[in-house]
Amino acid sequence: MSALPPIGPNPLATNPVTTTGSPNIALPTAAEKPEAGDRNLFMDLMARANEDQIRSEEAIQGLVSGENQDVQQVVMEVVKAEMSFQIFMEVRNQIVDSYNELMRMQF
Predict the structure, then answer these.
(1) Entry's Pfam families (predicted)?
(2) Which residue among 13, 41, 85, 94 sits deepest, i.e. has the most Cβ atoms within 10 Å of its Cβ?
(3) 17-49 pLDDT, tens per residue?
C-alpha cells in the first residue's frame, strides 16, 4: 500500500473577522437622542415658511388695495411662499415616515 500525501491546511477553515477600519470610530447607539440642532432646523424651516406666507399675503393685500402695482413681484412672493410650504411639508412627511418605520422595526 502506498503512503498518502500529508494533509495540508483545511481550505474550509474560517478565520476570525478582524476590522481594518479606524478603531476610533464610535458607532451610534439606540440610547442616543437627536441633537437639539435637528429640532431647531425643523423649527427654523417652519418659521421661514410662515414668514414667506405672511409676506405673500401682504403682497396680495397691497396689490388689491392699490399700494403695489408690481404684479410680477406679487406673483414671485406667492410662488416663493408655495415653494417654502412644499419643502416644509416634504421634510415633515419624511420625519413622520421615518418615525413610522422605526415603530414598525420595534415590533
Answers:
(1) FliE
(2) 85
(3) 555 555 555 545 555 565 667 778 889 999 999
Its pTM surpasses 0.70: no
Grid cell in block for residue 56: 405673500
3-state secondary structure of 67: coil
Tell me which residue has cell 405672511. Answer: 54
Alpha-carbon span 40 to 59, nearest angstrom: 28
C-alpha cell at 90: 416634504
- Joined together, the cell numbers standing for residue 10 give 483545511
Residue type (1 letter), 59: A
